[in-house]
Amino acid sequence: MKPIYIDYLNAFDIDALAMTDGEIIAAVEAGLVAQGNGQTVIEPRVHLEPDPSFHGHFNVLRGYVAPLDTAGVKIVGDYVDNYLHGLPSEFGILNLFDPRTGTPRAILDATVITDMRTGAVTAIGAKHLARRGSKVLAHIGARGTAYWNVRLLDHLFDFDEIRVHSRRPASRDGFAAKLSADLGKPVTAVADWKRCVEGADIVVEASRLPEPQPLLKTEWIKRGALVVPYGTMSAVELSLTDIMQKMVVDDWGQCKGGKFGSLRAHVETGRLSEKTLHAELGQIAAGLKAGRENDGETILFWHRGLSLSDIALGKAMLAKAQAQGIGQRLRFA
Question: Name one GO molecular function term (predicted).
C-alpha cells in the first residue's frame, strides 16, 4: 500500500490563508447550488449531550458533495458558558474523506470555518431573499458566528446603519467596537431587543438562550423585511410565521426534526411544514425556485447549518493552502 498522508490545517494556518469575503461566499454558495441540483447527500445532524449541567452539547454533521468529490464529518461543541473560561462557545474539527474509498484526506480546525460558513449562509440567504435596497441591519447576539454574519452581510449590502445587541453590555460593546474598526463604519450597540429590531430591513437573531423565550416580537418586524432566526433555543413568537409571505430553510430534512432550533415549536404546531415551506435555499441558489419577487414580501429564512457548507469551505481552504504552501502533512498509514 502506498503511504497515506493527511493535510492538516490548524487555526494559525487558516488565519494565514486570509480568505476574502468573496472567496468565503463563493465557496459556500457552490455547495448550496450542488444541494439544489441534487448533487449532495446530507445526513441529519445528531447531538451528544454529555450532561445537562455542563450547559452544552456536541453537534455531528455529515455529508457528501459530488462536484467536489469529497465527503466530510464535522464535530463541533457548543457550550454557552465557555466565556466564563475565556473560551469561544464553539470548538470544531472537520474531517474530509475520499468518498469512493473512505481514505482520510484532511483534518481542519473547524472553529472559524463554522463561524465563516454560518455567516456566509446568512449572507447568501439575504442575497436572494432580502430587498436589494436594504440599508438597516439588526443583529441579536455576539457569539462567534455573529461577527461573520455582520461582516459578510455588509460586504453584500454596505449598510447605512448596523445595530447590535446581546445580553451582556461588555459583550455587545466589544462586538460593536470590533465591527466598527473592521468595517470602517459606525456600528451601534443597543441595550434592548426592540430598539435593535424595530424598523430594520434585515433582522438576524442569533441569541444564546438557556431555554425558549419569545423576546423578539412579531409586531417589531416591518413589512418587506427579511428575518433570519437561528438560535439554538427559540427567541421568537409563534405568530412570527403568520406575517411571512415566504418561508425558506437550508434543509427541510434537518429542520423538521431534532431537539433544538429556533422554529422547533413552529414545526411541531404545523405552522412550518412541507405545505407552508416555500423552498430550500439551495433550490433558490440553483435557480430552481424563486427568491424574493417584490419589495413588499416579508420573508423568513431559518438555517440550522449544513455539513455541505463546511465541506465546501474546507475544500476551498485546502486548495488555497496547497497553492500557497500553508499547513502540514501528517503520515496516516
Answer: ornithine cyclodeaminase activity
